[in-house]
Amino acid sequence: MTHENAVLTSDNLTWPTGFRGYTGHGGLRDHGDDISIVASDRPATSAAVFTQSLFAGPAVLLSRRHATGRTLRAVTTLAQNANVATGRRGEENAAEVVRRVAGILGVPEGDVLIGSTGVIGRPLPMTTILPHFDRTAERGLAAFTAAPQDVARAMMTTDTRPKTASRTVGQARLVAVAKGVGMLEPNMATMLAYVFTDADVSAPDLDAALRRAVDRTFNCLSVDTDTSTSDTVAVIANGAAGPVDTVLFADALADLCLDLTLQLASDGEGATKLLRVTVEGARDQAQAKRVAKSVVNSPLVKTAVHGADPNWGRVLMAIGKNTDETDIVPERVGVKFGEVEVYPDEPEADTLLKLVDLMRRDAVDITVTLGIGEGEATVYGCDLSADYIRVNADYTT
Q1: Residues 261 and 313 in one domain
Q2: Which domain holds residue 330?
Q3: 2 within a domain of the structure (yes/no)
Q4: Cα distance between residue 371 and residue 280, in whole Å
Q5: Pairing of β 19-24 and β 45-50
Q6: What single DSSP character describes residue 180?
Q7: Exposed / middle / buried, residue 151 (Cβ in 10 Å: 0-12, 13-18, 19+)
Q8: Does residue 117 carry a catalytic annotation?
Q9: CA angle 44-257-28, nearest 5°?
Q10: N or C, where is the chain less crowded by C-beta within 10 Å?
Q11: Where in 327-386 does DSSP place strands (E)?
């Protein structure tokens, strides 16, 4: 990264020039804000990627159509209800929400993206949502006083903390909000993550930068191997700060997405530790990612990390179950926890003690060397605790 891609803290974070935010309580949850809107006061270019789930929800299906124009300038999110598997009624409800938001903002419906996240199989409570939008419409843009942290908090479901990130490129700023801690192994996108920038970037450059960033960050994330029906990642650029170097912009966007990825991984449901797995020396990047995902997704590896149990053989198990990767030869494989090598040389007793200390840290790094080629990938996840079961066993009850 260059010094021009400065990192901003989340404290007192504000929107880039020309953007404003809104949050309110629409009755999706018992208490607290559960509806949010972020909008540009001027036309914008955009790019977005979505879940490939066969049960993609109405919000995703509608947003896919709107995103093809690459002119999105507003995002609305409904928390606590995914509005998935709700049939024609769900489609009509999602479209009505977009109509209401577009009316409040005075923009075309096709310029509004909608995200919906939470319980699957329940219709949206339109009897409380629509009156909420009526009241918001009466206030108009005067109601748009929410900061990025407020919007990120309104998007939360089982998240324990709001997730925001920002970067600068020249005179332009990038500000992002995200949510997601479970049902999380992205397939082309992940959870809900929105990036807003006042940089002037063409739609093709924006799309290329987003897809590169997603491939190296969000698509390298896994909490529990489950791909959501509602995953959406979008970036909206309104050009208010003028043009920027496209290479520096792409670097900043990728760095920002990595920041959010680490926040999501470390806040995984029931998580107590961040888990990073790097595979080096693979045939190519795709193989490296597959092997790394098999390690980060292994329940046995994740529980060993949770208990700081130096059971390094579980990593070999996770590598070895990639039976289609016939060019992986055990004699060429190496495994490290941090800087401590555990394979191929059998660890001594004092090495295992060092390993326990490493695994007690807030972040645990595992590196696998395959000895095949130059491919490399790092994936991100978390440990597996009893709290993951508690959160998901009681999710709707």
Answers
A1: no
A2: 274-393
A3: no
A4: 8
A5: unpaired
A6: -
A7: buried
A8: no
A9: 75
A10: C
A11: 334-337, 340-343, 363-369, 375-382
